[in-house]
Amino acid sequence: LLPATHPLAAERRIRLRDLSDLVWLHPSQHTRPELYRALRTALESRGLVPTRHRGRRGDIGANVAIAAGDAWALANPAVAALYADMQGSIVHRPFVDAPIPMWFALVWRDDSSPLVDTLVRVARGLASPAARTRSTA
Q: What is the SS3 string spanning 55-81?
């Protein structure tokens, strides 16, 4: 996510290293240190060493900072869809760089409903190496 007024907003795809003039809004390095370190390492390996950053991603102030033209934040297409009606202030642009892989965790109770059991079974199937091979082929 980046400001609609930023020159990069005119591009279809952008390079991470070109975001160096903006503040990177990221998950808190105090409450989510592993996620922060993983993202920072991924950015650095793709040529962006964030010198200006702030752990504010996820609060309403982050959206204001992006819309004001001061900041950017990582977002996948599903999250970006929430901003589709804000084309005048915040836009989503995919990266030219390699995707940043992330993990996802499911936690459920032992006495969960059959629907939860189905969700877990589907998620496990998608996480299997065979499923990943099928989805990328």
A: CCCCCHHHHHHHHCCCEEECCCHHHHH
Alpha-carbon distance of 87 to 72, in angstroms, equals 15
Distance CA 60, CA 71 (A): 13
Q: Where do we find the tokens 């589907």?
A: 122
The residue among 92, 84, 71, 89 whose CA lies nearest residue 20 is 71
Share of the chain above pLDDT 90, in %: 45
Please determine, for residue 134, whether its predicted confidence score (pLDDT) is greater than 60.
no
**Can you give the residue ranges of every domain in the chain?**
2-91, 104-137
Q: Cβ distance 66 to 25 under 8 Å?
A: yes
pLDDT grade, residue 106 (50/70/90)?
confident
The burial class, CB within 10 Å (0-12 / 13-18 / 19+), for 89 is middle
In sequence order, what are the residues at sequence separation of 6 or more whose Cβ sits closer than 8 angstroms to the Cβ of residue 2? Answer: 8, 9, 14, 19, 22, 66, 72, 90, 91, 92, 93
